[in-house]
Design brief:
- By secondary structure, the protein is mainly α.
- The chain is about 65% helix and about 0% strand.
- It is flat.
Length: about 140
């Protein structure tokens, strides 16, 4: 029996079975980015909900709703930032600064409209920063 008589069955390679950009390997940077983005959104939503209920209990519904408006603006800002970072490298070379127009517009609106209060809206917007601090502390004390 010679080597040419044997048929060699090769297993399909992972390159043939995977679509570009969606490999399920632990080292895939885009998958890591999407996981991080989803985790930050969930933490921000949870933190916004907790603070909203706390402010409602200890202050008033009006202040809590102002905080919620700012928290929603923070979520939109985080989403805009993620979209900007996702396109970085492929389509553009630097991040745009138009995201800041969101908070500027919101603060200007709060200053003009008497029912809105600037401080709760601004603190609600900064909730995504608290999310980043929580994430960094969690990763620092519990590296995967």
């Amino acid at each position: 029996m010679s080597l040419s008589d044997k048929t060699i069955e090769s297993a399909p390679s992972t390159i043939e079975n995977s679509q570009p950009g969606f490999e399920d390997t632990p080292g895939n940077p885009m998958q890591d980015f999407y996981n991080l983005y989803q985790e930050l959104l969930v933490i921000t939503l949870a933190l916004t909900g907790i603070v909203f209920v706390s402010v409602w209990i200890f202050y008033s519904l009006n202040i809590a709703l102002n905080y919620l408006i700012g928290g929603c603006a923070g979520l939109v800002y985080l989403r805009m930032l993620a979209k900007d970072v996702e396109g970085l490298g492929r389509e553009k070379q630097q991040l745009s600064k138009t995201r800041l127009a969101l908070i500027v517009l919101l603060i200007l609106l709060a200053g003009k409209w008497n029912q809105l209060q600037i401080l709760p809206i601004f603190l609600g917007f900064l909730t995504y920063k608290a999310t980043l601090i929580i994430y960094v502390i969690r990763v620092a004390f519990n590296p995967d």
